[in-house]
Amino acid sequence: MKPSVVAIKQQEIFKFNARAKSIPGAVNMTVGEPNFHTPEHIKQAAIRAIENNHTHYTVPEGNHELLSAVANYLHDKYDLNYDPKTQIVATTGVTEGVFSAFNAILQDGDEVLIPSPAFTIYGPDADFNGAAPVYLDTSKTNFKVTPEMLAEAIRTNPRIKIFLLNFPSNPTGVSYTGAELEALANVLRKHDIFVISDEIYSELTYNFKHVSFGNILPEQTILMNGLSKSHAMTGWRFGVVCGPAAVISQINKIHELATTSITSITQYAALEAYTNGYDDPAIMREQYQSRRDALYEGLKEMGFDCPTPDGAFYLFAKIPEGFEQDDVKFANELLEEEHLAILPGSFFGIGGEGHLRFSYAASMENIAKCLSKLSLFLKNHKN
C-alpha cells in the first residue's frame, strides 16, 4: 500500500455527521449543503438531455458550449476574463478540482500554506502529493490572513508552492474585501507561488460584493468555483477550475486520468444554470441572511462570541467562558444529552479549538430548536 494513502484518516466531520444521523429526531446543524432543491428549470434541462440521448462521453475539459457559458457567467458576475478554449476545465466538484490542481503542481518537499481553521480536505491533499501543509493560525486576526502574516510565513517557509485561500470561508464565514485581497496580492507578486482560490461560496456573500482573486492576481491564481452552493446542486458534482492556460492544460491531464470527463447530464444541467440561472442564488441568499441573523443574535444572547459571517452559511462561535472549553467533548455531550449536532471547531485545525461550527443551511424551525436545546444544555452545564 502507498504510505501516503495509508496515512490518510477518515474525515472527522463525516464520522460525526454519521453519528448524528443515527440518532432519531436529532437536530442536525452540521451539514454543509443547501437545504433547498435544485431549481426546476435546471432539473428539466437534465431530463431533456436524457430524453435526447445526450448520454455519451464528452471531451475531458467539458462541452465547449458549457465552458463558453461559464466564461460569460464569470465575466458578468465578477468581471473575470477566461478563454473557454484554454483556461477552464469542468471538474467533479471543487473537491476534484483541488485534488487535480495539487497533483499537477506539487512535488515532494513542496509546501502548501493554508490559513486555519480550514476546510478539511486541503491538508490531506497536500500530504498525499508529498507536500507539507503549513497552517497559518488566523484565530487572533478575526480569522483573516493579514499581509504581514503572509509575508512572514513565506519568509520562514521558502518551499511554499501554493497559497490556498478559501473565501467566503468554510468554517468561519468570513470573507475579504477587494482592498484586503489587493494587500495580499502585493505580497504574493514577489514570489513564484500559485494562489488556489476556492470561491465556491462566492454567490452567498452578504455584506459586500464578492471580488475574485482571479481579478486581483490573474497570472498566479487558479480559481475554483462551481454550482454546489449557489444553485443547490451538491449532488450533481459540478465544479470549474480556471486560470492561466499553461497550468490549466496540466490540470486537465490529471482530470482526464481521474475521470475521463464529468457526466454529460450534469453538464447539460450546468449549462442551463449558467445560461438561465443568473438570479437563482439571490432567492436563497436572502433566506440564508435571515437565518444567519436569527442564529447570530440567539448565540450572542447566550454569550457566544463569533464574527458576523460575510458569506457562506456557517457561524464559528467561541464557547463562552465558564463552560467546558474542550469543543469535542462539548459537542459530544450536546449530541448525547440534547440530540443537537454541531461540529467541534478543532475538526477544522489550528485556531479552531474551543469553537463550534454551526451550519444555518437549515430551516428557521430547526434554528429555533437549536437555540432552545443549546440554551437548556448551557443551563445544565454552567461551571
UniProtKB/TrEMBL annotation:
InterPro entries named in the record: Aminotransferase_I/II_large, AspAT/PAT-like, PyrdxlP-dep_Trfase, PyrdxlP-dep_Trfase_major, PyrdxlP-dep_Trfase_small
CC cofactor: pyridoxal 5'-phosphate
GO molecular function (one): pyridoxal phosphate binding
Similarity section: Belongs to the class-I pyridoxal-phosphate-dependent aminotransferase family.
Highest taxon listed in the record's lineage: Bacteria
Residue ranges constituting the Aminotransferase class I/classII large domain according to the UniProt record: 27-371
Keyword Magnesium on entry: no
GO biological process, alphabetically ordered: amino acid metabolic process
The entry's keywords: Aminotransferase, Pyridoxal phosphate, Transferase
Gene3D superfamilies: Aspartate Aminotransferase, domain 1, Type I PLP-dependent aspartate aminotransferase-like (Major domain)
Record protein name field: Aspartate transaminase
The keyword Transferase is assigned to this record: yes
